[in-house]
Write a structure and sequence with these properties.
There is one protein chain. It contains 9 helices and 2 strands. It has one domain. The longest helix has 18 residues. Strands 1-2 form a two-stranded antiparallel sheet. By secondary structure, it is mainly alpha-helical.
Length: 195
């Protein structure tokens, strides 16, 4: 099974909300979701990186929600749809913003200068990060407050917002904390950067 097939399978098996079919159609036919990188140079900065990152976050979130006290606080069986929504779609803000450009780079083996591709950001809807994902998803289907907060605050303390505000959000919405942990685990431990 390809990663795209895996994503679509998880999406269609778990997300039954009104508008989900239109959102999946957007992802497949009107966006670069399945081919976009997850970043320009940090984690998964390659074609298909956003798709792989979304799957990694989903797997990390499901594993996190199945552990210890978290399992008692948040019943995954009853919330499979919510887990799929927040993990698979938390970085929807990254669709249709990356462009391939070229720069000169010296080939260490040959000593010759070569044109090499890299990704640039061209964001036509500069609406922040988590809040932009919430906004985009909401154009297709309704989110619960807990889902919206989890997606909005999935960057946790690595975001640029006031740390007290982040702390209050993560404390009030345990799913936001769980998604933040899953996103960081995927980004830093599973994926890493090219440096």
């Amino acid at each position: 099974m390809t990663e795209k097939e895996e994503f679509i399978s998880i999406f269609t098996e778990n997300i039954k909300r009104e508008g989900a079919d239109k959102l999946l159609d957007f992802l497949e036919n009107k966006s670069d979701f399945f081919t976009a990188p997850a970043s320009t140079r940090y984690h998964n900065a390659f074609e298909g990186g956003l798709l792989r990152h979304s799957l990694n976050v989903y797997k990390c979130l499901v594993a996190y929600l199945e552990r210890g006290r978290v399992k008692d606080m948040y019943k995954l069986e009853a919330n499979a749809e919510t887990a799929a929504i927040v993990a698979l779609l938390h970085d929807l803000c990254k669709v249709n913003i990356y462009r391939v450009s070229y720069r000169n780079s010296k080939n260490d083996k040959t000593g010759q200068w070569e044109k090499v591709p890299y990704y640039e950001i061209h964001d036509n809807l500069p609406y922040g990060h988590g809040e932009k994902s919430v906004y985009m998803i909401s154009g297709f289907m309704r989110l619960t407050r807990e889902e919206a907060m989890a997606i909005r605050w999935h960057m946790g303390f690595s975001g640029t917002e006031d740390k007290n505000t982040i702390g209050r959000a993560l404390e009030k919405y345990p799913l936001a904390f769980a998604l933040s942990v899953a996103d960081m685990e995927a980004s830093y431990f599973l994926e890493g950067s090219e440096d």
